[in-house]
Amino acid sequence: MISSLLFLVLLLLVIALFALNWLFEEDSPTSIKSIVHHINATSVLVVVAHPDDEQLITGLLIDAGADQNIRTAVITATKGEAGTPLPQISRYEDLGHVRKAEALKNTWALGVEYHQVYDFPDGGLKETPLSEIAAAVSAQMLQHKPDIVVTFWPESGFSDHDDHKRMGLAAETTITELRENPIDGYNGPTYIAYILAPTRAMSRIAGEAGIRVVANQPLANYSQDGAGWAKLRGWEIHASQRDYVQHAYGLPAWFVHGLYDKEFYYLIETQNIPLR
Ligand SMILES: [Zn+2]
């Protein structure tokens, strides 16, 4: 009697694990080992909004960072000063400084060569003139001359966050301008990879925002390993955000990153960036 009950409990647990894992899988993308090697990148520029946004793409970053032949750079638009500390580890007025340092430490651990954290207002990028943000992105593009830019899809921003959407738009705007008016012979990156959210999880457990994201983001065409171990290390480095995953998903980070173990991208040539 006890053994059959135990069997039933185990069976239900296995079914529940499969169901949870299914939430973080996608049917559309081709699974490849490496986005950056797939296109033979020599210079990668990541354009994101907040300290810890790089946590969404640790698989791509650690892969690029480990290759001596690839220059890897990240720009983060804000210091994350308007975020919620989880847990609180500093005075509130110091949160931006703390989060900036956490992001710099994390990308260093990922092997990223260069990381600039700007001081645009956290939560206020939508109200910041696009030209100001694009000027910063443009300066970095001319410095690093990436052949691929990794950023957010401007209509969904991974999580429907306006700051994320704004950075995707700033990156696209800069790329389009460079294509039309090359500077010093550089006409911008050949590729752009958009960071996409897992659609099943977003539409089922992320509420209204999640449903909007799925409705407004393209289908992923590539996936690669997400280096879950590096994400766990990243949450330790981001000490002020250490409990973020537990808070957002109601499950421990080690469990979530065990299931959510891939990264999904929409990779296209920049000549195919849609008109917004
Ligand atoms: Zn963010």
UniProtKB/TrEMBL annotation:
Q: Which domain of life is it from?
A: Bacteria
Supply the InterPro entries for this chain: GlcNAc_PI_deacetylase-related, LmbE-like_dom_sf
| GO molecular function, a single term | hydrolase activity, acting on carbon-nitrogen (but not peptide) bonds, in linear amides
Q: Name one Pfam family in it.
A: PIG-L
Name of this chain's protein? LmbE-like protein
